[in-house]
Amino acid sequence: MESQSDKKAKHAKDEESELWESLIDFISANVSYTTKRLLPADLKSLYTHEKLSNFEAFDDVNPFAADYAVSHNEEKGGINVLENVVYGW
Hints:
Helices cover 35% and strands 10% of the residues. By secondary structure, the chain is α+β, with helices and mostly antiparallel strands. The protein has one domain (4-87). A hairpin with a 2-residue loop joins β2 (79-82) and β3 (85-87). The protein is flat. The chain starts with a helix and ends with a strand.
């Protein structure tokens, strides 16, 4: 008979393997990219320059890096979840 901790460990391992499989599928997807020259009019609407309304949801834990504190991005709007990653702009 499996103990509760064994069941949780098995469930966590199953979720981890599913995550890895999904991540591999995502990274290996064939995607066509195009580049576009941004004009000054495009830059006006590219960023919202607004604070993220649900910023409090990120107070407890940063889902991208536990050791990086999230902060508002004053230049683009949204929040900085990593040094070079802005969410919600």
